[in-house]
Structures are given as C-alpha cells and as structure tokens.
Design brief:
The chain is α/β, with parallel strands linked by helices and 164 residues long. The chain is built from five helices and seven strands. A hairpin with a 5-residue loop joins β1 and β2.
Length: 164
C-alpha cells in the first residue's frame, strides 16, 4: 500500500509540474491569446507583446470587488491608453454567461475591451487563484505586476513599462 501511494504521488507531481512551469508569473512572458471581444471585435494579444505595455484584468460578473475595480481601471485606461498601453478584460467564465458578462460591462461602464473565456482556458493558463486578478506586463511582454487589485501607476512606473 505504501508503494502504491508513493507511485501515485510521484505520478501526480509529474503531471502537475509542467502546469506550474508554464504559469505566467512575475518576470515571465505573457501568454498570448486571440479571439473576439464581447462586441465582436477581433483581438490578438501577440500583436501587443513587444510593442506596448498590457494590463490584463481577469474578472467575473458575480464578483463585487471586480465591480469596484472598474472605475479605477477606467481612469488608468483614460490616462495611459492614448500613450500606448493596452487594457484587456477577460471574464473567467466560471459560473457566468456571456449575457451576464455583457450586462456587467454595460452596467459598470467598462471602457476597455472585454472577452468571455467560457472554456476557462485562459484562467487555467494564467493559473488564477481568484478574481479579480490584474496582470501588468511591460512593452516587451514581461510580467511586472500580478495582484488582486489594480495598482496606482505613476509616471515613473509607466516610464519603466515603456523602457527599452
């Protein structure tokens, strides 16, 4: 019985190890994705990697903190979008629907593109542990911030995100 348990633990470790190695963490590259936003507009994250900073906001329509983050992120988008920063919202799809996600976007006045990840693929690739999760990458696509709320971005922070 002890050998069987040890075999199962080893097998589970070997199966999960590749997942943990590919999770997008600080200092690692953004994981590209493409699709259409809730308004049907095409988007390919790969086009932004290497040319502009990116803020990814993972959210759900049933999340009260996600709702309170939208005005703060709208302000950041207003300040930095015209200067080259990309803002992208991704509904994680868990216990949610396209209809509820669209209603949330309308009700909160979200000013940046929103996607619905009904399969949960992006949440899995980015190894999310809750919503909201905010990820910011510099213009080279290297993740510099990952947390559950949006940060204040100073001019100095923005300059670092844009640096060669």
């Amino acid at each position: 019985m002890g050998k069987l348990l040890l075999k199962n633990i080893l097998l589970l470790t070997l199966l999960l190890l590749p997942c943990s190695l590919t999770a997008a963490q600080l200092g690692q590259q953004l994981i590209p994705f493409k699709g259409s936003d809730l308004n049907g507009q095409p988007f390919d994250l790969q086009q932004s990697i290497g040319s502009k900073p990116v803020m990814l906001i993972f959210w759900a329509s049933w999340c009260p903190t996600c709702k309170t983050e939208v005005p703060k992120i709208n302000q950041l988008a207003e300040k930095f979008r015209s200067r080259g920063m990309e803002f992208v919202a991704v509904n994680v799809g868990f216990n949610d629907s396209i209809e509820r996600a669209s209603a949330f976007v309308q009700k909160t006045g979200m000013t940046y593109p929103a996607f619905f990840d009904g399969s949960g693929t992006l949440a899995e690739k980015y190894k999310l542990q809750g919503v909201p999760t905010v990820i910011i990458a510099d213009k080279h696509g290297i993740i510099r911030f990952r947390n559950f709320t949006a940060p204040d971005i100073s001019e100095a922070n923005f300059a670092q995100l844009m640096a060669d």
